[in-house]
Amino acid sequence: MFFVRTASEQDLPRVQEILRETWHATYDDIYGKEKVIEITDNWHSMKRLRDMRHAPQSEFLVADNGTVIGGMAYATQKDKTINLHQLYVHPDFHGGKTGLHLLIEIENSFIDAEFIKLEVEEKNTKAIKFYEKFGFKKSGETQDCGEDGSGIPAIIMEKPVIYADDDEPIHQR
Fold first, then answer.
1. Helices 46-53 and 12-31: crossing angle, nearest 10°?
2. Which has the closest alpha carbon to 173: 164, 123, 106, 165?
3. Cβ pair 20, 72 in contact under 8 A
4. Model pTM greater than 0.85?
5. pLDDT for 150
6. Could you give the strand order of the β-sheet that contains 154-160, starting from the edge strand earlier in sequence?
7. Which domain covers residue 57, as residue numbers?
8. CATH number of 110's domain
9. What total number of domains does the chain contain?
């Protein structure tokens, strides 16, 4: 069982490892190993992770079971919208509720938000199904997922923020 907490500086090497391993497991067949290395070296550099930890109006979380960190999530808030930039669970821990617990804690971290929005690579059907299961709906598309000029096509998904308790949504804010 994982508990969710704010990431510390000491967590960043493991977070970086989770991001790299998860990206290879998810995207090597889509983009090829070399492209995934290029993306992860850029997007998941230690400098970027440190910057994320200190970004204003943000939350950087890890899922920790006391022995290992099995997942992470990072989001920012602008106006009344949470932008979920990253939610990754190491492949060894897929199928549990780690991703759900990270998502719930992200939503509960921004108390005045009304919507949560994210981008997901259009070929990442597992992630799309995960988000749909928890109420996200497609609201648009982008050709530059993650950052301007990335060239990675993605769908934009969003939903109203809900209060949540453990695994069950209670009601919309």
1. 120
2. 164
3. no
4. yes
5. 73
6. 3-6, 58-64, 69-78, 81-89, 115-121, 154-160, 137-142
7. 3-172
8. 3.40.630.30
9. 1
